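=== RUN LOG ===
request id: a7f3
mode: sequence -> structure
chains: 1
length: 504
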Amino acid sequence: MNASKQNSITKVIGASSLGTLIEWYDFYIFGSLATIIGKQLFPSDAGASALINTLAIFAAGFIVRPFGALVFGRLGDLIGRKYTFLLTLVLMGGSTFLIGLIPSYASIGYAAPILVLILRLIQGLALGGEYGGAATYVAEHAPANRRGFFTSWIQTTATLGLFLSLGVIVLTKSSLGAEAFSDWGWRIPFLISIVLVIVSIYIRVSMHESPQFTKLKSEGKISANPLKESFRNRANFKMVLLALFGATMGQGVIWYTGQFYAQSFLENACKLDFNESRYILIIAIALATPFFIVFGSWSDKVGRKWIMMAGMFLGIVSYRPIYQYFLDHSDYTKATVLSSAAPVQKSELVKDTKDSLYTVTIAKTLANGASYNEVTTTKKFADDTKTPEVTTIQQDKKLASNTFWIFVGLVFYQILLVTMVYGPIAAFLVELFPTKIRYTSMSLPYHIGNGVFGGLVPFIATLIASFPGSTPLSGLWYPIGIASLCLIIGVFYLSNKIDENVAD
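=== RESULT ===
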């Protein structure tokens, strides 16, 4: 490849990747702040249902992604890749900015979660068209023998979007303090995204259309009905189904378990300190992200299939031991307490009742250097005949130094599996479908598999774990089951052959 072509593909990757990074940043800030946002969108006495309802709103954005894939995929095959995923960026970025402006439940009642839900649906529709456009755009510029390498750069941006979101959240919270951040500071990560969107729009406007689409258009061979050709053509529809059930479905649950559910589990099940859980994820992401390129490039040499299947298999067999370790080593009930701070007491009336709530918080430090807050809550009823309800929990846990780094290693391992299934996926999907219907055909299985099956992992896993008789590990059966089904289908029915010519 000569220097001019190298510069061209570099610009293409940069323009595509920056937009995709922003798209994922927008999604991640909502997922990462679900606990705080839930308290803003729902009544103060909603309890655990506030988090579940917020995760449901978050999940709604993923459910509509396949519809976005149909709408914007069709546009991409009709009018071009460039302008379609420019439009998706505007819709996504605008919705994110507006979420940061929505008043709380205290101000406008249930209109708050309804408005956020509407904006999340717009986000989901937009992302349904973003990834297919970016992947197709890069793949159609890339040389045949390096398609996995070049498209894998797009894959890094999803993780970098998470990394950026966590960094912004941690810096904002550290600057404002926990109380101000929970009250209004959580809006800042949403609002500043508009700057990134403007920069990305500027870059994308200056780019040229895909050469393969341009050639197709000049020859008058653009599909008149991409949806019909994608799904009513038997051979093509078979490829759509194989892509979904043999690859993207498993890729999706591995992705969201390793990056989303891991963080949610550490914060909600293990009760780690807010910053502690995010430091673990930030470090693990920073160490694992280069492996997207490694596995993408490797797939150019050995094929895409077996790398993705290996990632799924390793997730299936290792998730439960990993998460059991998280639970066991964040349980301080039998640990030796080295010192205890003076109790901090707080009292308040229960909303809309005459009952009183008394909270006593004691900061404790363990002999191994770990620490936590022991919070005892006593609910006293106005009716003296009722026995007061007393609950004691451990929260805001900080790990001992050696345990912290083991946790980092275990999260790193999970993200490494993500790089195995996600690094080669763009090249794999592009090579399955002809140019004139590629945007439509690859977008739908990707967004059903990644967006619906994968995106629902935090919500479904958390919901399953909340059922009576469930354990904190019960939620893992969902990603394990989906990945197992996908692994079986992929092993027997997917081909490991690399299609050198995608200009058809």
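=== NOTES ===
The longest helix spans residues 234-269.
The beta strands are 337-340, 344-349, 356-366, 371-380, 389-398.
=== END ===
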